[in-house]
Design goal:
Helix content: 55-70%
Distance between the termini: 50 Å
Shape: flat
Number of strands: 2
Order of helices and strands: EHHEHH
Number of helices: 4
Strand content: 5-15%
Structural class: mainly alpha
Length: about 150
């Protein structure tokens, strides 16, 4: 990364703008959900609070980035972004038909390909642990309507 006398840290500016944009997108996606109150939360309560916090954090990141010396992004490595996108989209497509376990394994194994330094033993161990914890928390604990396995 190159530095100059100008202000504005581009990577942080991009990260903050992304957070603000995702928060705004979340507000838009949850626009038809009722907010409710703290005592009687509606379906939109958690998404709205989460999006507001995301926008707030993004604004803080942008504010801090504007006070730093200029750092340019340099060379962009697109491979990790593509690999992570494929992993997340694959999870979304596979979850209902193949179940939480298989789609979680897909997500974690494919996402590990984004890091050149990942080791297969660590990937296997973390995949096993995160899949079990995810199933316990989301499917059984929170009652997310996904099958555990396709059969």
């Amino acid at each position: 990364m190159r530095s100059s006398g100008k202000t504005g840290d581009y990577p942080d500016l991009l990260a903050g703008a992304l957070m603000i944009g995702l928060g705004g997108l979340g507000f838009w996606a949850a626009r038809d959900l009722t907010f409710g109150t703290t005592a009687h939360m509606g379906a939109g309560y958690l998404p709205d609070i989460t999006c507001a916090l995301l926008i707030l954090i993004g604004a803080v990141v942008v504010g801090k980035a504007l006070s730093k010396n200029l750092l340019t992004t340099g060379h962009w490595n697109v491979k990790p972004l593509l690999v992570l996108s494929i992993a997340v989209v694959g999870f979304a497509i596979l979850a209902e038909s193949l179940g939480f376990v298989i789609s979680s394994i897909w997500l974690l194994v494919i996402a590990s390909l984004a890091d050149r330094e990942s080791r297969w033993r660590e990937v296997a161990a973390s995949t096993l642990i995160l899949t079990i914890v995810g199933a316990l928390v989301f499917v059984w604990g929170l009652g997310v309507k996904l099958p555990i396995l396709p059969f």
